[in-house]
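Supplementary material to the annual report.
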Amino acid sequence: MKEVKLKINGKDVVATEGMTILEAARKAGFRIPTLCYHDGLTPHGGCRLCVVEVKGSPRLLTSCTTPVADGMEVYTDTDRVKEARKFVMNLIMTERNHFCMFCEKSGKYEDTDCELQKRAYEVQIEHFPFPVYVDKYPVDTSSPVMVTDHNRCILCGRCVRVCSEIVANSTLDFSFRGSKALIAVDTGLSKGKSSCISCGACMQVCPAGAIFSKFGGYKSRRSLCERIETFCPICGIGCETTNYVRYNNIVEIEGNGLVKGSLDGGQLCEKGRYGPLMESRNRISTPLLRDSKGRFVEATYEEALNRVVQLLKAYSPDQIAFRTSSFLPAEDLAYIKEFASRIGVKDIDTFDGNVYRNLSSFKLSKGTYEDVLNADLILLIGGDIVKEHSVVGSYIRRAVRNRGAELVVISSIESKIDRWAKEVRRVAEGSEGSLANDYKNKIKSMSNSIIVLEGASLLSNKEAIEPWLKLAEELNVKVMILTPTGNSLAAWELGISPDLADSAGKSKKLLFLFLGDIDSSYSPASIAEKGYETIVLHSAYIDAIMKLSDVVIPGKSWLENEGTYKVMDGKARRFSPILKAEKGVKSPRELLSDLADAMRLGSISIDDIVRKL
Amino acid sequence: MAKVRVATTWLECCSGCHMSMLDLDEKLVELASKIEFDASPITDIKEFHPVDVGIVEGAVGNEEQLEVLKKIRENSKILVALGDCACFGGIPAMRNFFKKEEVLKRVYVETESTVNPEKVIPHEDVPKLFPSVKAIDQFVKVDVYVPGCPPDPKAIEYALRELLEGKIPVLPPELLSYE
Ligand code: SF4
Ligand code: SF4
Ligand code: SF4
Ligand code: SF4
Ligand code: FES
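Predicted assembly:
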């Protein structure tokens, strides 16, 4: 790229062609305050806080939108510039309600959560020199997850840009003009009734207190929180997160940064951003044992362990089954497997084990996120991608919107992705496969097709999925498998799957159940159907299966449990716990290690196994 | 050296800014050797006399407050707006988003703790309410602003020390506060 030589505040600076003054100045170490500008978004030039003086230009120029030019002389901090910035800030602060003392984001200079307020402190606003508007603007609380208070909105347009450029959902826009201007949701709806998918990206980028979370709002300033960077293992995408925690409560979860050029743009989905904050289930707080009259009685951990030891000895290994959620860290999964094999139990499986079993006999060419972005035909088969794998939904929308890709949705349920599709085929659940051959010629006629298979119920249903896999194999089309949980892939690679031939036909009497928290493949009803004689349950939350269990042992939730995950992109990642578990509450590997001691099984080591992932 | 004479008053406010001033703690003792308080809620002197510095907490929401404000302005060489209510309107200005009649009805008739079966809204013996609450610089000239709800004692100290040195203080970002 061509070099551009300019002077900033008298210093010689070398930039590259196409850079803005702001970028060049930042690179050279000069700070220019900004508001409507955001690193991950297209510059907008709306707020005018970033103005600079450029020799030869009678007007001040917005540095965030003005490209550098050879020989340019830029001054970022003259009195004229400072005065203009203060004037701009005064206008912004008095245009709507910026009485900070009753605002969610307000704080002092070092610890405010409000970028606008911080900028106001910097230009030393200490009173409003203009009369303050007292018009009332709407407050929209209809979204299930966030509040939009237009009284605090400065019309910087960051929310509009993130929703359109990154999330590619285009829900937001500007409406009306002048003092009546308002951020519009689908040209006049409330957020709760709109096309909004509750991803919260707009909330994350809002530099003022205009969009805030219903769950974190008014809980704590960030500076008072512990900050934990990790990732979200709820679905197979594994978005990176920054978690703000105070007194062992999550205050806020953010996507990591909205980094310029990163593929996902630092997004999260509703489940990832708000799910843990919306938690309403009750925890299992103490071990429970069923007494001779069939009632639960509270027990100590040791009593519960003893009962489990008795039960594991009372049944023969081929009468015992282990079931686990692939939402657990690899360390737990590996330990469960090793423990089972030590006591001779062969029937061990995850709830979504069928997914990879169904795939294993096909030679598939794996589609990547880039393949979705570059496709000209996207066949999206399965459940509701917006609910289950929302961030991949944004790649699909980008392909459709920016490149005119054709989207075909084949699914039994309605989804907010449907409005982007050229064709939506509503089919009965389980019969998705019957349509595969309809698309053979279409795929052949396109140069870049991808089949996206989504949803635990589709992926674990052989009949529904095989025709698509056959088609993909035959035509050598890229396939993207959206795995149900953060560790589905690791569970499969660890070999947690029953030797079906070996266990077939033998009815199981004792079930040892390890539940992850949220696993779309787990179904209490289908476990109940099997009619086990005895169930040992290790789980964090009270749910329907507890009633059928005979021994209940409290477990860590995923938020409390450290460990390794291997998400869809195939990279192993370490999850750092966000919350601390109550004393004595165990992960599956801790529980099984105690059991192994009690049963004198000798030490079980899983380090090597996990390292290979 | 003659002591600097200071008067203070509170208008529509919560008195938190005066409390924050008292939070200067032992520094007050030191400042007291250089400052003499005249009319002030602290000294309980009610009549204003000519002073070097007048400090006003609170916004203006009724005619009595405006009168007090004018008096302290007339008597002060330098007038300081102390706290968000005086500087911006602050919490009292929240009522600006409602009509005066709505506000009066809410306060005198509707609040959960009110017993007022006749639904009388007093209009005698109480100062007349203005349609909206405003910062004090909407009525009189202000020389120094120390915002904050309340201002940090450090900000008040900074302002007082600058004044004692004969300077007009402008608070740095770290001492500014709108909350
Ligand atoms: S949005 Fe920021 S500047 Fe506006 S009231 Fe809230 S804290 Fe103050
Ligand atoms: S939550 Fe997401 S989809 Fe909804 S308006 Fe904001 S950015 Fe757009
Ligand atoms: S809602 Fe926030 S991000 Fe959107 S325009 Fe208003 S201030 Fe900017
Ligand atoms: S898309 Fe998946 S990994 Fe990303 S935030 Fe949502 S649930 Fe978590
Ligand atoms: S940051 Fe450049 S105009 Fe807003």
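Residues A 34-37, 45-50, 62, 64 surround FE2/S2 (inorganic) cluster (ligand 5) (CB under 6 Å).
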